[in-house]
TrEMBL record:
<protein>
    <recommendedName>
        <fullName>histidine kinase</fullName>
        <ecNumber>2.7.13.3</ecNumber>
    </recommendedName>
</protein>
<dbReference type="GO" id="GO:0000155">
    <property type="term" value="F:phosphorelay sensor kinase activity"/>
</dbReference>
<feature type="transmembrane region" description="Helical">
    <location>
        <begin position="138"/>
        <end position="161"/>
    </location>
</feature>
<dbReference type="InterPro" id="IPR004358">
    <property type="entry name" value="Sig_transdc_His_kin-like_C"/>
</dbReference>
<dbReference type="InterPro" id="IPR036097">
    <property type="entry name" value="HisK_dim/P_sf"/>
</dbReference>
<dbReference type="InterPro" id="IPR003594">
    <property type="entry name" value="HATPase_dom"/>
</dbReference>
<keyword id="KW-1133">Transmembrane helix</keyword>
<keyword id="KW-0418">Kinase</keyword>
<keyword id="KW-0812">Transmembrane</keyword>
<keyword id="KW-0808">Transferase</keyword>
<dbReference type="GO" id="GO:0005524">
    <property type="term" value="F:ATP binding"/>
</dbReference>
<feature type="domain" description="Histidine kinase">
    <location>
        <begin position="232"/>
        <end position="440"/>
    </location>
</feature>
<dbReference type="Pfam" id="PF02518">
    <property type="entry name" value="HATPase_c"/>
</dbReference>
<keyword id="KW-0067">ATP-binding</keyword>
<dbReference type="InterPro" id="IPR005467">
    <property type="entry name" value="His_kinase_dom"/>
</dbReference>
<dbReference type="InterPro" id="IPR036890">
    <property type="entry name" value="HATPase_C_sf"/>
</dbReference>
<dbReference type="InterPro" id="IPR003661">
    <property type="entry name" value="HisK_dim/P_dom"/>
</dbReference>
Length: 445
């Protein structure tokens, strides 16, 4: 619409100027008929000449003499005078708009320069009714041509949009529907082929997402199969451990003092192994049983973990900073697994260096939470392990490691409403922080 206005309005103004200039030229030609007959023509011929020119009179100025060459009765007074010799483009546009908007017929005087040096000035009087009618017809023709051009342009744009945008978008949608039917089938991943840069980028992003999703689904399927196999193994292993537990109970009644001291630790270890086997199926379903919260001594639990995970004559020594009377509320068996996984990972990291080292464990409490900080003097975590630190089978820090330890520990801590965080890791060691809320529910928090 804006383009049409910018084209139509100046075009109408130019048409009006050409129309008036044509009237002047025809009036000049009519006046030449009179000049060639020594100023004597019949009234009928004079009227015919004026009608052909479309004017009421013709005034010529030649050799500084102003002469009324042709004339006829003017039906009403002259309303306005237009001098085409010194009019600006803005004035032409303004006059044309006023003429186009006002339908009232008027008598106007038009002044211009004669052609072919036919004098100094030519002046005519004419009606605006034929002028306005001609302007309206011209506008209709322009609008009709513009409508045809618009239809052709719209058709071209429609075909272009269909071919360049709609068809590629439909192709993307169709690929998404086909992929959704079997996302594990890598053959259904889209291959970018659009020529529009933005759509091609969308196809490439979709391909990346589909490829990643297909890989994740395959991994989930393998994990599910692995979980089923582990559950079967755990079932049989639990039966074996149950039998071992009976023998361990008998060992506890041994008269040998060393055996009597080791027997309770052996019984506790076997008991925890049986409990772990019983919860394996739940972990295979990506969920742990809800924690059974009890109050217990954190220092005693840490001592049990260190007795089970750190050999007495090993290269790794514990450094404890935990108040002896500090009590926390958590699931004792699950929190034992959390600390056991963290201590085991720390010990293995230090032993991999072939040098001696320390595992530092500190504990404390604030108004709303208990915290346990566990650090080691190992070599630190590699960059790949940091990216998927708490993801099973992806966050392993050592060759052959599965990454399950940190994944299990993180899941168990989240089950308590807490967080397991990596505080720092570098060439001098790694440090984790466990936060356990004191509130038993969100309403208390």
């Amino acid at each position: 619409m804006l383009a049409e206005i910018l084209i139509l309005v100046p075009s109408i103004a130019r048409f009006r100027e050409d129309y008036l200039q044509t009237r002047l030229e025809k009036a000049q030609i009519a006046s030449l008929a009179l000049l060639t007959t020594d100023d004597t023509i019949s009234p009928e011929l004079e009227r015919e000449l004026l009608d052909n020119a479309g004017v009421f009179n013709v005034v010529l100025r030649r050799d500084a003499v102003r002469q009324l060459v042709l004339s006829s009765p003017i039906p009403e007074p002259i309303d306005e005078t237009y001098d085409l010799r010194m009019i600006s483009h803005a004035a032409l546009i303004g006059d044309a708009l006023r003429e186009f908007v006002d339908p009232t017929p008027r008598i106007i005087r038009v002044i211009g320069s004669p052609v072919e040096q036919g004098g100094d000035l030519i002046e005519v009087a004419m009606s605006t009714a034929p002028l306005r009618q001609a302007m309206v017809q011209y506008s209709i023709r322009i609008l009709a041509i513009s409508a045809v051009i618009s239809v052709i342009t719209a058709a071209i744009l429609f075909v272009a949009v269909q071919k360049l945008m709609v068809v590629p978008i439909r192709r993307v949608v169709a690929h998404m529907a086909v992929y959704a039917e079997a996302p594990e089938d890598a053959r259904r991943v889209i291959e970018p082929g659009a020529r529009i840069v933005e759509i091609r980028e969308a196809e490439e992003a979709l391909r990346s997402m589909q490829t990643q999703l297909t890989g994740n689904l395959r991994q989930k399927e393998r994990l599910a199969q692995l979980g089923g196999a582990v559950a079967k193994i755990s079932h049989d292993l639990r039966n074996i451990l149950t039998s071992a537990q009976l023998f361990a109970d008998r060992i506890g009644s041994s008269a040998d003092p060393a055996v009597a001291r080791a027997a309770p630790k052996l019984v506790n270890s076997i008991t925890r192994a049986v409990s772990l086997c019983e919860t394996t199926l739940a972990f295979g379903k990506a969920e742990e049983p809800p924690p059974s919260l009890t109050r217990f001594s954190l220092r005693m639990l840490i001592d049990e973990v260190l007795d089970a995970e750190l050999p007495e004559e090993g290269r790794v020594a514990p450094v404890l900073d935990v108040p002896a009377g500090m009590m926390i509320r958590a699931d004792r068996e699950q929190f034992y697994r959390v600390l056991s996984n963290l201590v085991r990972n720390a010990r293995q990291a230090i032993e991999a260096t072939g040098e001696s080292g320390n595992i530092e464990i500190a504990g404390g409490e604030a108004d709303v939470e208990w915290w346990v900080r566990l650090g080691d003097t190992g070599p630190g975590l590699p960059p790949k392990a940091r990216e998927h630190l708490f993801t099973a089978f992806q966050g392993g820090a050592r060759k052959g490691g599965s990454g399950l330890g940190l994944a299990i520990a993180s899941e168990l801590v989240r089950g308590h409403g807490g967080r397991l965080e990596l505080l720092d890791t570098s060439e001098t060691g790694t440090e984790f922080l466990i936060r356990l809320p004191k509130a038993e529910s969100l309403t208390e928090a």
